Amino acid sequence: MIKVGLNGYGVIGKRVAYAVSRQDDMQLVGIAKQTPDYKAKLAAKRGFDVYSSGDPDAFKDGEVKTSGTLEALLGKVDIIVDATPEGIGAQNKQLYEKAGIKAIWQGGEKHSISDLSFNAYANYDSAIGARYARVVSCNTTGLLRTLYPLQKEFGINSVSAVLVRRGADPSETKKGPIDALEVDKHIPSHHGADVNTVMPGLKIDTVAIKASTTLMHLHSVSVELAKNASKEEILELYGRHKRIALVSLKDGVSSTAQVMDIARELGRGDGDMYEIAVWKELTVNGNRLQYFQAVHQESDVVPENIDAIRAMCGADKSSQSSIEKTDKNLDIGAYK
Ligand code: NAD
Q1: In sequence order, what E strands does 89-130 have?
Q2: Which one, of 31, 26, 14, lies nearest residue 272 by Cα?
Q3: 8 lines ligand 1 (CB under 6 A)
Q4: 304 close to ligand 1 (CB < 6 Angstrom)
Q5: What order do you get walking across the sheet with 79-82 strand by strand?
Q6: What phi and psi values does residue 217 have, to the nearest 5 degrees?
Q7: Are the beta carbons of 146 and 293 closer than 8 angstroms?
Q8: Which is the most buried residue in 18, 175, 209, 227, by most CB within 10 A?
Q9: Is 142 touching ligand 1 by the criterion CB < 6 Å?
Q10: Ligand 1 in reach of 140 Cβ (< 6 A)
């Protein structure tokens, strides 16, 4: 059993903790929280041991009992998943170094934190036995999920993508309400360069727009393949990848609202959509492919964290078998 700890129990952290608890080759030793808020209470209710990562006195009079400090947790685990806010993860690195354990960070941290940015489809093997890795952001994960299979099967000359990003997460009230579509001031946006941390050499340009929605991101992706393809071939390729869910206008799925309705109906985790939803109504003209995809920003990186844990701890040397295990345990591929 791989002993896993979780530091930063927010949008991503609570989902990764839940996903770890669903694996039969991993044990969630505990989660670290700064404050005894409702998330800490729910974590305890789920049976997770809670450790304090801030002032231990904060938990003194609360209903949530702690099992010790973050340092104590670090002393009990093989690997820590850091899902603290952007920039905090980098500050925590020295703690993990001192404890002599492996660590995974999230996409808010820079590539240089580990010099290994991870996506299970694209570079599982390079993480085998690694001490440190970073699971790339939700948008980058979404792009890699659908681009890597294309690269492998057909080759890619270039990619151009427009990312319509959610303005805030559903529980993130401090950012809302907003009533605008906002152009990302970085043109091109950083997402293309982030894809290159996993797929170096891929010619990709991205631009981003922030929209007043909390549900999902929506990408419009245009790909010049290295050879001609047919629509049937692309659909067959994506159909073979469980982490891609094919949805259709014909079935009444015309927006991110219906995609998330499907996710809730499937009843997994927090009503999550681990898969990237690709609309079947994609167009192929010779070697030019155009498609829409929806990305559930709160959960698409969760299975990637699980595979990164397995690869780094050397528990599974085969990407295919780790991915299959994760998919089975999280019911990924339930909507095809
Ligand atoms: P969040 O704010 O929802 O959760 C972070 C948690 O860490 C909170 O519970 C907070 O209380 C806790 N925390 C704050 N400071 C801490 C500290 N010093 N030590 C320990 N815990 C601390 O953040 P999030 O959205 O889950 O993002 C976490 C990481 O995941 C970031 O790198 C982010 O860029 C990345 N990410 C976020 C999303 C998303 O859409 N939310 C998607 C993919 C990746």
Answers
A1: 102-105, 117-118
A2: 14
A3: yes
A4: no
A5: 66-69, 50-52, 26-33, 2-7, 79-82, 102-105, 132-135, 117-118
A6: -90, 155
A7: yes
A8: 18
A9: no
A10: no
Cα–Cα distance for residue pair 89/175, rounded to 1 Å: 21
Share of the chain above pLDDT 90, in %: 93
Length of the chain: 336
Q: Which residue among 11, 138, 144, 306 is the active-site one? A: 138
Residue 41 C-alpha from the chain's centroid: 24
Q: What is the DSSP string of 215-264?
A: S-EEEEEEEEESS---HHHHHHHHHT-TTEEEE-GGGT--SHHHHHHHHH
The backbone torsions φ and ψ at residue 241, rounded to the nearest 5 degrees and listed phi first, read: -105, 110
CA of 11 to the centre of ligand 1 (A): 6
- Reported as a single tens digit per residue, the pLDDT across 226-260 is 999 999 999 999 999 999 999 999 999 999 999 99
- Provide the pLDDT confidence category of residue 145 given band limits of 50, 70 and 90: very high
Task: Copy the structure tokens of residue 98.
Answer: 């001192």
SS3 59: helix
Q: Ligand 1 centroid vs 42 CA: distance in angstroms?
A: 17
Q: How far is CA 98 from CA 42, 94, 117, 197, in A?
A: 30, 6, 22, 27
Centre of ligand 1 to C-alpha 106, Å, is 9
Report the alpha-carbon distance of residue 148 to residue 243 in Å, rounded: 12
> Pick from 334, 296, 326, 328: which is nearest to 124 by CA?
326
Summarize pLDDT for 271-302 with one digit per residue, the tens: 999 999 999 999 999 999 999 999 999 999 99
103 CA to centre of ligand 1 in angstroms: 15
Which residues, 6 or more positions from 232, have their beta carbon under 8 angstroms from its beta carbon? none
Main-chain dihedrals φ then ψ at residue 25, nearest 5 degrees: -110, 15
Alpha-carbon distance 211 to 181, whole Å?
A: 5
As a whole number of angstroms, the distance between CA 239 and CA 36 comes to 43
Q: pTM of the entire structure?
A: 0.97
Q: Which atom of ligand 1 is nearest to the CA of 135?
A: 44
